[in-house]
Structure formats: structure tokens, C-alpha cells
Design a protein that fits this description.
Blueprint lengths: L1 E10 L5 H12 L19 H6 L6 E7 L2 E7 L7 H7 L5 E7 L6 H12 L4 E6 L8 H11 L4 E3 L5 H5 L3 H10 L4 H9 L4 E5 L8 H10 L11 E9 L5 E9 L1 E3 L3 E5 L5 E6 L2 E6 L2 E4 L2 E3 L3 E5 L9 E3 L13 E7 L5 H14 L5 E4 L4 E6 L2 H15 L3 E8 L2 E4 L3 E7 L6 E9 L6 E5 L8 H13 L14 E10 L6 H18 L2 E15 L3 H11 L2 E2 L3 E2 L4 E9 L6 H8 L5 E11 L3 H8 L13 E5 L2 E5 L4 H4 L5 H8 L22 H15 L16 E2 L12 E6 H5 L3 H9 L1 H19 L2 E6 L10 E5 L2 E5 L6 H11 L5 E5 L3 H9 L3 E3 L1 H21 L9 H18 L2
Parallel strand pairs: 1-3, 1-4, 4-5, 5-7, 6-7, 25-26, 35-36, 35-39, 36-38, 39-40
Antiparallel strand pairs: 2-3, 8-9, 8-17, 9-16, 10-15, 11-12, 13-14, 13-16, 18-20, 18-21, 19-20, 22-27, 23-24, 24-26, 27-30, 27-31, 28-30, 29-30, 32-33, 34-37, 37-38
Helix pairs in contact: 12-13, 21-22, 22-25, 22-26
């Protein structure tokens, strides 16, 4: 039997998705009797709640065979409250059938699914269902799909090769030559999401389903899997006996019973390893035990206790963060005599199966809070607790899930030093892009802090939900970098760095300018024309923004709006009331945006960051054999390690800095005349042979010309390279050796090297030299051939100039900074600039010099020694000619 595909079924609720799955299973012979959702006997609706409600709540899989080829169908929930389950299933699909009701057309959740499929890069087949109940024509339906989803949606029930050819230039060439597009090219277009086949039918009557089945069988995802074992976990569940089940897709190699499975961190360290006790292959509620699973197959593993949806096992990497996020939180009310800690354990079990539930236990209040996706979700959760654990619960105090971020970079310090304990951590908190979440990295050299301590700090950064200082809401959209740390050889223990890390984050948040974020929803409001004015007034009062109304058929109109979640929590019920049941509202999470009424929300919450004993910003220091607490605003002055700001100030006072930019050239130790040099060279060559110069170009010293000051605005949307001159000189061995004899010569050689680099790469280069200890120095910006050379003014370091330039050019240009200064790298990274170490930049320069040498060899000038300026002009002209030759 041929190896099959994994095909998902996705749709807006009530589009007929489960009915289509029943038809596919019945026509393929996988089931003898075709079930129906309204009869409660659908093959894939195995849970009692699904049968009662008539909706799919949990994803299920079924196996069918058509023309000796196996297909695994994945039925996903259609209700928006369970869209997190749908998103997780998409990570293992080879293709997907998007079901759309011909009666209702494209709805808000349909567009959400379309975006998710695009982000996961999944090939899509469309099936327009319920055509038997649609009064219009098929062409109108197709045009509506093309308008709202994609122009490349083509009707495949009546195949038109000319329309397919318009989707791709290669396909158009085939059509013009042969009059049709070959099947393999059509398959390539479907795989690359440049063509979306569309089929029409009525699944309840099995109309048009066989045509879709033929297309799914013929579809070839053409995926090649590596030989090394890898697997992607997409679901965790329990069977009727309580055994923990891990559903996964094998993405490489082969999985056998008793194989050892492991999860690794970003550094390749094994976090845990467990054996697969049993492998199962599910179809509906039934399963078959199998000895192995090959690459590309779905299977269920028994015996794993630490897996979570999204985990990448073996060679597979960790999955992406969830796109769909909950917007509301509520307090759990226990209505029977269940102990709160037992209730917490039960909910943790459900949280493993549904990660978006996010259970939080607030110890000081002895309360359990649960994040929810909506009212239907909470009703299902209440039923699950009753059926599985015998626990009677309810929910109260529903509120919006706020988030907090910061407006600018700040350094946080945490110190924990009670008697016989020691740890200090410095963290740089930088604002990130909206929706980026929390990101962590380290800028500390291993010589300053051992790798095991740095990994421990990373663990503590990730293990906890860190809250802000405005409302106590979780922080987000932030990058947290380790910039300094210290441990004691004798007294440091693992828990010491936990305390220091937590306090460093908190102290940084207290120093920063915090921003309150609230969730916004995309609303799709369908109301009769008589109620349109009421709907517009309500949206305006909410602070929402809406587009012009669209015709939804008959006297119904559709409004699409963006509104704060806090204002429209129960608005759907109001719509049903004032439209007398004719109107409906669909809501989808859009993004976290700055809160419109932050002051009122903060005042209503009444959160006191200093009174939160579980998230203290203060630090513990030791004096005279006893620990004492230092308030957060005094921690910087007590810290044992210098802050980034202090490091910059200290550099400006280092001895010998006045010699960094001398007023007159420093003489070398050797001062022989030109005639003496020639005599010595003649003696040397008679003894050892001719001397071959290692320099690519003979050095020249063109005069420096005064240039206008360089500002970021001059380089809008261009790539700029900022070079810390003395840092590079003392990092490159050849220049460092030369600087010990003649610093001016080392500067001159670096300038020549960067001229070549700029000429070949076309990048704007700004070379910065320290002149901060030159008395009365006003600073200068000079043009040397094709680069800018900056000498900083008195009391200004090169670091300060680079930091200022990257900050002012943030968002206006693409900035790279060449330096090996760790603290400086951390700061420019916070200003959204790219960083490159001196060693990496040296390798780039060597590659550029190699390309110049190849150019000279190509033009038979290997034995010539042109001036640097001549060679630069030659390389620049060839680069320009290459650009002009492009169409």
C-alpha cells in the first residue's frame, strides 16, 4: 500500500466539516454506515459533550484508503473557543481542506484559519459545502472567495488550464506551447501555495465528495525526511484507563517500541529522556498497537510523562509560539468540598492537554485563576471537571488579560547575599516588537561567568511568569539579556541565582517606563439594516474602529471592526437581543496594543508593586556577618559589579587614553634614511632572495577632506557599518603589532582596508576613533576617499558616539556595529542595531580582499602593484556596471 498524506479538515463552525469527514470515510469504505452530527453518531465525534452539542471540541484522526493509498484525516474544532487545538494540529499536516458553507460564505474565523494556514505554509484545497441550499450561481461564489481569500483560487470541478496558467509564468509557457499545463506542474503550484483548487458539493448527500477524494489521493507533498530521528508533539491526552497519551508526528528516521526519546534545550543539553512503552495507531476511538512508526506517520506514544504540545523530540526543534491567545481570565469557584490543592492538581492535568488554559495559583489570596477563550470553553471545562474528577466548579470575576511592557532599555540589578549565600545578576531589559513575546539571550563572556551559571539564569528567566509593576500583569514584548553576573566559589547555590534573577527583573521594571497593554479583537458584526446605526454607535462608544458596511445578503449588513476586548466581552448577547435573534457577532484575537484608558485601569486594579512580597525589587546584601535588605532605588550603588553606564564612564578615565589620538604622528623606533633602507634591502635580497609584498595594494596617503557631519537621516533605508576603530586595531593581530611601533600607521592601514571594503560591498562605512582626552577637542568628521572618519570631541568616547548614532537611527536605517566590546554590543543590540565581533568582521574583510585579488587576476594585473585608489575605482566601476546590466 502506498504511503499516504496527513490531510486536515478546518472550517468555521456549522460549515459541515464533520459531515464531510463522514462522507469521505463512507465513500472510501472506512465505515459501513454514514453518521450524522444531528443524530449524534458521527465517527469522529467520540466524546459525549460533542454528541450533545453537535460541535467538534477535540481533534481526532481517522484512516481511510482510496485506490490503494492511505490517507489520515485530521478533524479539527470549528468553534473559535477551541481554535488553539486547531492551530496545534496544523504543525503536522501535509495539506488541508478548508470547508466553506455556500450559504454563509467566508466568515471571520474562515479568514483566521486562512492566515494560520499561510503561516504554517500548508497547501490548501477548498470545498464549498451545502451548494444544494444555495440559491445563487457557482461563479458568484467563486468570485467572492477570490476577493476575500486569494485570486489564485481556481474551480477544479470544471478544469480550465488557461486560468491555471495565469497563476504562474512557467505554467503559462507550458500552456502556450502545449495548450495545457502538465499535472506535475499543477502539483508543484499546489505545494508552493500558488494555486488553490476549489471543489463544490453537498457532503450530506455525498455530492462532489468523490472528486475531492481523487484530488487528495493524487496530491503529493513531496517531502523528504532525514534519516536522524525526530518527532513533533501536537497533542497530549488521557485514555479511559487514565494512561497519558502523547500524539506526535515522526519527522525523521523511525520510532520503535522501547526507543529512548529525549528533549533538548537550545544548547543541545538533554532536558529529559524517557522510553516509549507502547505505540498506537488511532482511527476514531479505536486503536491498533504497532511495533514502529516511519517518518511522515502519526502515532500515539504511551509512557511519556513530560511531553507538552509543541515539543520537538530528537533532532526536531521546538515549535513556534502559539499565535492564538486567550483574552480573558476568571476566578475558579469550588462548589463542593474539594481541597484547593487537589483542585489545582486536577487543573494542571487539564492544562497539559490544553496549554492555553494557563492555570495560575495566587498563593497570597489562595485563589486559582484560569485564562479562558470564551463562554463555551468554560462550559466544557466545567463539564470535564465533573465527569473526570467529580469536582463541581463555577467561575466568577471575569476580567481582561492585560499585559505590560517597557518604553525604553533599562538595566536591572539583583543581588542575593544572606550569610553563606551569594549571587549577583545584571539584566538588560529592552522593548521588543509588538507580538514578539519574551526573548532571552546572554552577552556575558564565559571568562566572566561560567556557562553552568548562565544556563541556570536562563532557566530562572523562563520558568516563571514575570509580572509588571503597573497592574501585576505578565510582561511581554521584551528582550532580556544577561550582561553581567557573579558567583562565589564556595557559597553560591542554585537557589541563590533564582532569587538574584527574579529581583533583577523586578528592579529593572521599577526603574523603567512601563506601558500597559490590553487585548484588541477583530469583530465581524452582521445585523439587519434597521439596526446598523445602533451597531455603529456602540462600536464608536467602545473606542473601536470599523470599515464601511458590506452587503451580507437580503437586508443584512456586515461591519468589520477592531475594538478593545474589555468593551465587548458580552456584546454578542446584546446583539442577539436588539436584533431579535437575526444578528450575530464573531470575535477573534487581534493583538495586544497600548491601553486606551491606562490610568483608570491602573487605579481600579490598585496594585502596589512594593507590597507584592512574592515579587520583590529589593536586594539582600551582607555586612558584619548578617544579611540586610537594600531598597530597589539604592541597589545600583551597593552592587558589586559595575553597571553598563559605570563601565562607560570608567573607560573615559583610563590612564594613557590621551595617547589614543595624538596631535602629531608618533615616530617609530627605527628612523633610517631612504638610502639606508635601499642598502639594507639589497643585502637582504642577495642573502634570502626577492621580497614579495604581502600587501594587496601599495599604501598611499591621500589627503583627508573635511566632510559635513554624518547624521542617520543621510542614510535613510541604507546599510551603515559603524566601526569602533581602536577596538578593531587592538583585536586584529597584524594591526595590533603595527600599533605598538606606530599607532598612526595602524590607523592609516585600517582606513585603507575599510575603503576597499566599502568599495566592493557598497556599504556606507563610518570609522570612529576616540579623541575624548584631547584638551579642547571639538571633534571632527572627515571624508577619506569613500568612507567617513569620525574623531570624537573632548569627553566623548567612541562608544558614546556609536550608542547615540544607533539610537537616533533606530528604524531609519539598517545599522551594523563592528566591535568586540561586550557591554557596547548589548547596548547597540537594545537600539535594534546588528552587532558583529572583531573576529567575524575580520573574516568578512578577508573575503572582500580575496574578491579584489580575483578581480585583478581576471584582468591580468596580478604582477602589477596599482595604487589603492586605482584598485578601488576599478572594483567600484565593475560593481556599478553589474547593477546597470540588471533589467
Amino acid at each position: 500500500m502506498a504511503k499516504g498524506n496527513i490531510i486536515g479538515l478546518a472550517a468555521h463552525v456549522d460549515a459541515g466539516k464533520t459531515t464531510l469527514s463522514e462522507s469521505l470515510l463512507y465513500l472510501s469504505g472506512a465505515v459501513r454506515r454514514q453518521g450524522r452530527v444531528d443524530h449524534g453518531d458521527a465517527f469522529l465525534d467520540t466524546e459525549q459533550m460533542e454528541k450533545e452539542r453537535g460541535i467538534t471540541i477535540f481533534s481526532k484522526q481517522a484512516i481511510l484508503t482510496w485506490k490503494k493509498k492511505e490517507i489520515t484525516l485530521m478533524d479539527t474544532p470549528g468553534h473559535t473557543d477551541f481554535s488553539g487545538e486547531t492551530e496545534r494540529v496544523m504543525s503536522v499536516l501535509d495539506g488541508c481542506v478548508l470547508v466553506i458553507s455556500a450559504v454563509d460564505g467566508v466568515q471571520s474565523h474562515t479568514r483566521t484559519l486562512w492566515k494560520l494556514l499561510a503561516q504554517f505554509e500548508i497547501p490548501v484545497f477548498l470545498f464549498v459545502n451545502k451548494t444544494d441550499r444555495f440559491q445563487g450561481d457557482k461563479e458568484t461564489l467563486l468570485q467572492n472567495l477570490q476577493k476575500q481569500l486569494s485570486d489564485n483560487i481556481i474551480d477544479f470541478t470544471d478544469l480550465d488550464h488557461e486560468k491555471i496558467a495565469l497563476c504562474d509564468e512557467v505554467a503559462l509557457d507550458y500552456f502556450l506551447k502545449d495548450g495545457k499545463v502538465p499535472d506535475y506542474r499543477i502539483q508543484q503550484l499546489i505545494r508552493s501555495r500558488r494555486l488553490f483548487p476549489c471543489y463544490f458539493g453537498a457532503a450530506l448527500k455525498n455530492e462532489g465528495v468523490e472528486t475531492l477524494l481523487e484530488a487528495l489521493v493524487n496530491f503529493d507533498p513531496a517531502r523528504e525526511y532525514p534519516s536522524d530521528f525526530g518527532a513533533r508533539v501536537y497533542k497530549v491526552a488521557r485514555d479511559a484507563q487514565g494512561a497519558r497519551l502523547t500524539f506526535l508526528k515522526v519527522t525523521g528516521g523511525e520510532l520503535k517500541v522501547r526507543d529512548l526519546l529525549s528533549l533538548k534545550d537550545e544548547n543541545g543539553e538533554v532536558l529529559w529522556a524517557e522510553k516509549a512503552a507502547e505505540l498506537r495507531k488511532y482511527s476514531g476511538a479505536r486503536y491498533t498497537a504497532v511495533p514502529s512508526a516511519e517518518a511522515g506517520a502519526l502515532c500515539c506514544v504511551v509512557g511519556l510523562s513530560k511531553t507538552a504540545p509543541g515539543d520537538g523530540l530528537g533532532a526536531e526543534s521546538r515549535g513556534r509560539e502559539a499565535i492564538i491567545q486567550p483574552c480573558y481570565s476568571c476566578r475558579l469557584v469550588i462548589r463542593d468540598h474539594t481541597d484547593i490543592h487537589h483542585a489545582l492538581d486536577y487543573l494542571r492535568t487539564l492544562e497539559e492537554e490544553e496549554p492555553l488554559m494557563r492555570v495560575e495559583y495566587i498563593e497570597q489570596k489562595r485563589e486559582i485563576h484560569i485564562q479562558s477563550m470564551g463562554d463555551v470553553y468554560l462550559e466544557v471545562l466545567k463539564r470535564q471537571c465533573k465527569d473526570r474528577f467529580g469536582m463541581d466548579i463555577d467561575f466568577a470575576d471575569e476580567s481582561v488579560l492585560y499585559r505590560e511592557t517597557i518604553a525604553g532599555p533599562v538595566e536591572g540589578v539583583g543581588h542575593y547575599e544572606p550569610l553563606r549565600h551569594y549571587a549577583e545578576v545584571h539584566l538588560l531589559l529592552s522593548p521588543g516588537k509588538r507580538g514578539s513575546g519574551l526573548r532571552f539571550d546572554s552577552a556575558v563572556p564565559l571568562d566572566d561567568l561560567a556557562l553552568n551559571w548562565q544556563r541556570l539564569i536562563m532557566t530562572h528567566l523562563r520558568e516563571k511568569v514575570h509580572v509588571g509593576v503597573l497592574t501585576g500583569s505578565p510582561i511581554t514584548d521584551m528582550k532580556i539579556s544577561i550582561v553581567a553576573g557573579r558567583a562565589h566559589l564556595k557559597h553560591t547555590e542554585g537557589g541563590d541565582f533564582r532569587q538574584a534573577t527574579y529581583r533583577a527583573i523586578r528592579q529593572g521594571l521599577m526603574k523603567a517606563e512601563s506601558v500597559l497593554l490590553e487585548p484588541y479583537l477583530n469583530l465581524e458584526l452582521t445585523v439587519p439594516q434597521d439596526n446598523l446605526g445602533r451597531a455603529m454607535n456602540d462600536l464608536t462608544a467602545m473606542g473601536g474602529e470599523f470599515d464601511a458596511p458590506e452587503n451580507a445578503g437580503g437586508d443584512l449588513l456586515t461591519l468589520r471592526a477592531l475594538a478593545p476586548a474589555s468593551k465587548c466581552a458580552s456584546y454578542g448577547k446584546q446583539v442577539s437581543i436588539y436584533t431579535k435573534g437575526r444578528g450575530r457577532m464573531n470575535a477573534e484575537f487581534a493583538a495586544y496594543l497600548p491601553c486606551a484608558d491606562a490610568a483608570a485601569v491602573i487605579a481600579a486594579r490598585g496594585y502596589n508593586p512594593l507590597g507584592d512580597l512574592f515579587n520583590s525589587p529589593d536586594s539582600i546584601f551582607c555586612s558584619h556577618g548578617a544579611g540586610f535588605e537594600v531598597p530597589w532605588d539604592q541597589v545600583d550603588s551597593y552592587a558589586h559589579l559595575p553597571l553598563l553606564k559605570e563601565i562607560k564612564e570608567q573607560r573615559s578615565l583610563e590612564p594613557g587614553a590621551a595617547d589614543s589620538v595624538p596631535k602629531t604622528p608618533v615616530r617609530a623606533a627605527y628612523q633610517g634614511t631612504a638610502k639606508e633602507d635601499e642598502e639594507l634591502m639589497a643585502i637582504f635580497e642577495r642573502t634570502y632572495g626577492p621580497v614579495k609584498s604581502r600587501q594587496l595594494f601599495a599604501p598611499v596617503k591621500p589627503a583627508l577632506t573635511t566632510a559635513a557631519p554624518v547624521t542617520p537621516g543621510d542614510f535613510s533605508q541604507r546599510e551603515i557599518l559603524l566601526v569602533d576603530g581602536y577596538n578593531i586595531i587592538f583585536a586584529w593581530d597584524e594591526l595590533k603589532k603595527l600599533s605598538q611601533e606606530n599607532l598612526q600607521a595602524a590607523r592609516q592601514q585600517l582606513m585603507d582596508i575599510l575603503c576597499n571594503y566599502s568599495g566592493v560591498t557598497g556599504k556606507d562605512v563610518i570609522l570612529v576613533f576616540d579623541a575624548y582626552r584631547v584638551p579642547g577637542g571639538a571633534g571632527s568628521v572627515e571624508k577619506y576617499l569613500n568612507i567617513f572618519v569620525v574623531y570624537t570631541k573632548e569627553a566623548q568616547t567612541a562608544d558614546a558616539f556609536i550608542e547615540k548614532t544607533t539610537y537616533e537611527a533606530k528604524g531609519a536605517a539598517r545599522i551594523r556595529v563592528a566591535t568586540s566590546d561586550g557591554p557596547e554590543q548589548a547596548i547597540v543590540l537594545g537600539n535594534q542595531a546588528l552587532r558583529v565581533s572583531a573576529r567575524e568582521f575580520g573574516r568578512e574583510v578577508e573575503n572582500v580582499q580575496g574578491s579584489i585579488a580575483a578581480f585583478l587576476e581576471k584582468n591580468n594585473r596580478v604582477h602589477a602593484t596599482p595604487s589603492m585608489e586605482t584598485a578601488y575605482k576599478q572594483a567600484w566601476r565593475e560593481k556599478k556596471q553589474g547593477q546597470e546590466a540588471k533589467p
